[in-house]
Design brief:
Layout: E1 12-16, E2 21-25, E3 70-74, E4 84-88, E5 121-126, H1 140-158, E6 165-172, E7 184-190, H2 195-211, E8 225-228, E9 232-235, E10 246-250, H3 262-283, E11 288-293, E12 310-315, H4 322-327, E13 330-332, H5 336-345
Parallel strand pairs: 2-13
Antiparallel strand pairs: 1-2, 3-4, 4-5, 5-7, 6-7, 6-11, 8-9, 9-10, 10-12, 11-12
Helix pairs in contact: 1-3
């Protein structure tokens, strides 16, 4: 046994039946799970000064003129005291003004290479008008309004027949990809179904064909459970790709995030707040990403029994390096059962 291995545990390879990805669990590369802390915590301002407006921040209340055009706000009125704004991204990855790619004829000179015009939508959700507040500082009700803003924008984008997938994601902290510290998330509407999404759907289908069951509904939570609410559970997945990765999963089978109702949004908001605060408390407020993994918009009814949406939170504690890039197989130094135990035992932050 290598001298660095902990408590006699040997490395394991685990396959995630949701993402169809192999993960190497290597305890020889780990400290104690409780010793995992972010070495570069996301810098935040005090949440006690909720009236803080930062000069030059385009997302702060009163600075709306510094932003790209607004799509809608909450409350939905011209009241300047808004709570949430959904705006166009000033530096979009895709261009909503281009021609619909479904109307563009293939170029015969490309010799079978597939190229689409960069049509699509790239939006920003400003989660609070105040620079000092982070998402985890908001109440469950306030977070639910952010979640429902995601839902409403997805429904708007779904009305465009050429949009096939909508990705909601949040980058918190500079090393997690956030270019502005004001709390915000992003939504991208794509004219294609991305390969990771197709692989997830195909993996779920394979599990369903073999077992007759949904791979997410069948997640065994005994040692992986962190917490639970009326409508959701939070777990460290059995084959977690990253240390202290968290999934929040609807208890009842649900394929589309945009079917979330108000009661479930409040319930989800409370559990999401708790997970973010536990993670910040135990891991020294790490930069993180969260992503909503939902169904492609154009799935058919026979596909719905095996597609189950979930929200994934990834604290940025390790670096994706050459092995991961080359193989798509990740090395995780913390066994999921150990990570779940550490997070489960963190006292619920006030």
């Amino acid at each position: 046994m290598a001298s660095g291995q902990k408590q006699g545990r040997s490395p394991e390879l685990r396959k995630d039946w949701v993402t169809n990805r192999w993960v190497v669990f290597s305890p020889a590369r780990a400290k104690r799970p409780s010793d995992f802390k972010s070495k570069s915590p996301a810098s935040t301002t005090s949440a006690t000064t909720a009236d803080q407006i930062q000069d030059g921040c385009p997302f702060c209340l009163g600075h709306e003129h510094l932003c790209a055009p607004e799509i809608f706000r909450v409350p939905t009125s011209s009241d300047p005291d808004w709570k949430i704004r959904v705006i166009q991204n000033l530096y979009p990855a895709l261009d909503r003004t281009l021609n619909d790619p479904s109307a563009v004829a293939p170029n015969p000179n490309l010799n079978g290479v597939e190229v689409l015009g960069g049509f699509g939508f790239h939006d920003v959700v400003i989660e609070t008008p105040f620079h000092s507040l982070q998402l985890s500082d908001l109440s469950s009700q306030e977070i639910s309004q952010v979640l429902l803003a995601y839902k409403n924008r997805i429904l708007q984008l779904a009305a465009h027949s050429s949009i096939h997938y909508v990705q909601v994601f949040k980058n918190h902290g500079a090393s997690a990809g956030a270019s502005l510290s004001h709390s915000h998330s992003q939504i991208i509407g794509l004219p294609v179904v991305p390969p990771n999404v197709s692989a997830r759907v195909d993996s779920m289908k394979q599990f369903f064909n073999e077992t007759g069951k949904c791979s997410v509904c069948e997640i065994q939570v005994k040692e992986l459970l962190i917490d639970e609410s009326t409508h959701f559970i939070s777990v460290v997945p059995f084959a977690a790709t990253f240390p202290f990765e968290i999934w929040i999963i609807p208890r009842d089978h649900s394929s589309h995030f945009h079917q979330l109702d108000e009661a479930k949004a409040v319930d989800l908001g409370g559990l999401l707040k708790l997970m973010l605060r536990k993670m910040a408390s135990q891991l020294n407020n790490p930069p993180f990403n969260f992503m909503i993994h939902t169904s492609p918009l154009r799935v058919t009814d026979p596909q719905l029994p095996y597609i189950h949406w979930f929200l994934q939170i990834i604290p940025q504690l390790t670096i994706v390096a050459g092995f991961e890039m080359a193989t798509g197989c990740y090395i995780n130094p913390v066994f999921p059962e150990d990570a779940a135990k550490v997070l489960r035992e963190v006292p619920n932050p006030e």
